[in-house]
Design brief:
The protein is mainly α. It is 52% helix and 7% strand.
């Protein structure tokens, strides 16, 4: 199996997600050598010991890898053994939930199956709501442990976490409503599956034609999900309207503020915040303060002004 794997077929697993003395349904790999090729570290069904975890940590190794096609097995393992473990600090559990997000979305994307993406979001959302409503998880800790690489999977998880934090500031405390918002946030960029990776990962400025392709993703995502009975209107509008603007200069339609769903406005603010504070192919991430200043400058034009002020308040109070 090792001979068949290349680095692009691996997904990262934080070592704190591996409980000592529990057996796995997946092989664990290290990346080794100048080419970072995978080397088998622990074969499936062979338990890892506490001494192994300590040895890895002492060697500076914080991440192991599994094959992408074992993503579902990893998700099952984490839900059974890791999420219930209250000895793991909340920030650590959030980081592990990010790995679950990556696992679930990878599995669904590999099969190009929107139904499985929705199912993955529905499984993940209650865990995120439960964790992020815990007073022990400070936003400063959350921001510190977040991955900021702006790939599809980590961006969706970050936007979800930020949406929940902003929703609570706006006075939404019902767990059912928060879970509904969390699912919509996880799905907001589902339409990007139809955009070429060469465009999404382009290191320079997009051409006009390339940007027109990018602007199709809200409509594509909405059309894929619109007939699903397990998604509500607010969730669909988070997918369809998160790039609309109060001044009518957004896309895909160009509607104005009164026609934009509040959940889409909420999503729009934190979507751009995460984009600005993430490492992109064409620029380095901005400090959080600079990203907040950008939102402030564009409040009322690109973003709902009340949402921006609430987000600035949320960030400045908790960071």
């Amino acid at each position: 199996m090792n001979d068949l794997l290349i680095p692009s077929q691996l997904m990262p697993v934080a070592i704190e997600a591996l409980r000592p003395n529990s057996a796995f349904e997946f092989d664990l790999f290290l990346r080794s050598g100048a080419q970072q090729m995978p080397v088998l570290y622990r074969e499936h069904h062979y338990p890892i010991e506490a001494a192994d975890v300590r040895s890895l940590s002492e060697s500076g190794i914080q991440t192991l890898y599994i094959a992408e096609h074992h993503a579902e097995a990893f998700e099952r393992y984490v839900r059974e053994f890791v999420i219930p473990d209250r000895t793991i600090p909340p920030a650590g559990r959030y980081k592990i939930l990010q790995d679950i997000s990556r696992a679930g979305f990878l599995t669904a994307h590999l099969g190009d199956c929107p139904a499985r993406i929705v199912e993955s979001a529905a499984r993940l959302a209650p865990d995120l709501v439960g964790l992020l409503c815990d007073d022990d998880l400070l936003l400063a800790d959350l921001f510190r442990v977040m991955q900021h690489d702006y790939c599809t999977f980590t961006h969706a998880a970050n936007v979800c976490a930020y949406c929940l934090a902003l929703a609570e500031t706006l006075g939404i405390t019902d767990r059912g409503a928060l879970t509904t918002i969390a699912v919509g946030a996880l799905l907001h960029d589902i339409g990007k599956r139809k955009i070429s990776p060469a465009i999404l990962n382009k290191p320079g400025r997009l051409t006009k034609r390339e940007f027109e392709q990018v602007k199709k993703h809200p409509r594509d995502g909405f059309e894929e999900l619109a007939l699903r009975r397990d998604l509500g209107w607010g969730q669909l509008m988070m997918v369809y309207q998160h790039h609309e603007r109060p001044d009518g200069r957004g896309y895909p339609v160009g509607v104005e503020q009164d026609e934009i769903h509040p959940w889409a406005e909420l999503c729009s603010v934190v979507d751009v915040f995460d984009a600005l504070t993430s490492d992109r192919p064409y620029r380095r991430p901005l400090p959080a303060a600079d990203a907040l200043a950008y939102l402030q400058r564009n409040a009322g034009k690109q973003f709902n002004g009340e949402m921006v002020q609430c987000w600035i308040c949320t960030m400045t109070q908790k960071l």
